[in-house]
Amino acid sequence: MADISQAGATLAADAPASGAGRAAAHASAEKARPPRGRKWVGYIAFLPFLLVIVGYELLPLAQLVLDSLIGKESGTFGLENFVKVFTTPLYQQSIINSVWISLVSAVVGIVVSFLAARFAYESSERVRNAFTMVLNMMSNFSGVPLAFAFMILMGNSGVLTILGEQWGIPFLADFDLYTGEGLLVLYIYFQIPLATLLLLPAFSGIKKSWREAAIILQASPLDYWFRIVIPNLMPSILGTLSVLFSNALAAYATAFAVVMNNYALLPLQITSKFKGDVQIDAATGGALAVVLIILMVICTLINNYFTKRASKGREII
Amino acid sequence: MAYIEFRDVVKRFGDNTVLDHISFGIQQGDLVTLLGPSGCGKSTLLRCLSGLETVTEGQIVLDGRDVTNVPASKRNIGMVFQQYSLFPNMTVEQNVAFGLKMKKVDPATIERKVAEAIAMVELSGKEKAYPSSLSGGQQQRAALARSIVTEPAVLLLDEPLSAIDAKLRKALQSRIREIHQELGLTTIFVTHDQDEAMVMSDVIQLFHSGRIEQAGSPVEVYTSPVSEFAASFIGSYNQLSASDFTALTGVPVPQGNVIAIRPETIGISRERPDEKDAHLVDGTVVDSTPRGNVLRYTVRLEGGTTVFVDVLFRSFHMFDRGNKVYLSLPERDCLVIPVNAASARTAA
Amino acid sequence: MSLKTKAVGASAPDKKTPLAAKIFLGVVALYLLVPFLTTLVYSLFVEWTDVLPSGFTLRNYAELFTNSTFWFSIGRTLVLCLVSVAITIVLLLLAMYVVVAVNRRLGRFMQFVCMIPYALQGVILSIGIISLYTGTGTILSNRMFMLFGAYTILVLPYIYQGIRNALNAIDANMLIQAAEMLGCGRFRAYVQVVLPNIVSGILVSSLLAESIVFGDFVLANNIAGTNYQNIQVFLQANMARSSGLSSAIVVVIFLVVAAVTALVLKLQHTSQNK
Which of A59, A113, B200, B323 could connect to A195 by a Cys-Cys bridge, CB 3.0–4.6 Å? Predict the structure, then answer.
């Protein structure tokens, strides 16, 4: 998961380089072009990839869009399903809950991981490596296993719940994991390692001489952090925030393992329409899926914009 | 008393002594260069003066005030770093204004002073530009403006031109020198480039492994190096060992010394010259390389040592490889210098 | 405020770790470790209703390791991991040949389609495939076919990035041209000169992809469900039944993924040192 931002960054960073590379390759291709008649043979190697992409990525997407546009009742082409999605309380609630839980978990995650990345950056290499190791390991602890661990910890007869009852700590004793707030705690948990791994590289872009220049120019530590460090990290922070948001938005396994389908959450609702014990409802499911896709695409665009800006700044300076 | 005084300054990082009992003074308004190879302690001394490093022992006095334990932000110092010190989230203007804002200067004054400083470093028109869109030279100009706008007691420049290509470096050297004279600002300039030190300084402090090897005006340091190290670091002195020199000229040289001769003081001719007050030796030209307006011959002497001889590049007076030549080494230019400065001090 | 900028604090970031940093990082690390550690302890004891658990036992593990359903689900998971990652590698290597040696303009298209799964993630991918193929009555409506197809797409971004970075690092185009000058055909040059040089790059990203397939629940549950239970679905099915057994499964899953992650980090470390 940690490679997401790396992907974004490299995509943006090597755009001009690959342009030059392409020009050079083009020039040499003029010289070393294979005999004309055989050129199409080279493309055969692209076919298997193309088939799989079309069959399992592009067509399924198209199918969902198609599903969403064919009215469930009328069977005609139109926005009927979307009207239904946005007027039915359950679906409205699902969208609201999804956005709320994603937003809150992303913001809390970014605050905690900003501090963690900052302290890791100020630490010795040994401490930083050990901490990064924990992050890498625990970023894998998600989905069903994570849900189970939290049930043991904070479920109805969880260890902390029982201890909370014995010691009279109402927060622990009365904590209900099987609600939106419960899910939020879980979501925050899996956001922290991901967010910290994404933010750490940004901190290495903070130059030692900025701090020294700021000190000599009589800036206080607060001035240094709020006028120099945070503004410079802003693109990375916002980019990471959008990754976290979409990560939470699409999370399914964790939520499903805790609440099954008993909570109004977009991914849960979408899935239940295609895999319910009841009748499959591709129309409504498709429309909900398209709403999710649109939210995700917005996130990706935001992230691309910020990683591009972040890498641009670093590249030239 | 001098404007800035280093008194017996010692700096250690763990077991590593970076500054070994440094003592000297700097006069107000001077441009002083700390010159030396990398790792000799020159940057560390600058950082001790700025307050970015603390000294292990000793005292630093700035304008009559003991600043040894004064925090960096209270020393009223301007500093330009090697590179990357501009704040990338601010425009040139905002960078330059930063120090004044921190001092809570009123906005109208800030605006006027910033404009003046930017004009002084010839960056007018780039006020709204971000550092990422500036060249390395422009960035260092902006950094310079940022450090002089607060009217510091002393301006510190820590190898500010080392990351800038040769042509621009020349222009910036003279601009810094001009600004120094315009403002009369006491300036300390750290560099490892001896040409740069020659061009810019009033006084050169030559550093060698944590100590000051030699101090003086550029002319003094250039014409009378006190040690083998100084001779090899400043200019491109030919150095002959005592035994080689005695074998070639018959003149005895005390042990523990070398003979240093600058290439441009050596005469070269096809016929045996009739010169007084000069040692004559013969040799063979093995190479010649044009270096701008100077032609440098490499001449192999008897016994195998080679020396460089610089002559003005004139086409009518040239030697080819393999030519037998006579070299005249003027007696007064054959400097007898100790292998290291420490032994020189005890001898003196 | 500026009074507090002591000269000492102003010196270069010390190699020593500040106390505040130690405390904060320690708390975060602990917070991240606690759920797993609790599960580990839980799996090793009979009872945990007081501060300390009681009755150390390996019963849960004995029960798990003698459960044939567990071994079948592990086996299925491994088949899914290895086959789908292998398919993706072959598809991408073939396609990359075309990008490197025939038409570089296809690179843009490839990059775009390979990054889409990042944004889609499991839910959309699985229901799209279900909606498209279920009930078509062809071989494509076979659940296994759908599942392998879905995994192939799921790991696409990771493996694509690994291969592309490796190809960029060795300047594959230049190598092929050099081989061509020596009279070697382009495809042969790609197979014999380029591929051996990017093996380590592919290895790291493949391992990463393996751990993603290993950790997948969404695709397996949505597409195959109980028809072809992988380890995650097996865990989910057991959760309500036996928490002791489930805690042992969680520990096993985590240790496997942690081992793969450790291997990835080690490989990355050694390649960086080179």
Answer: A113
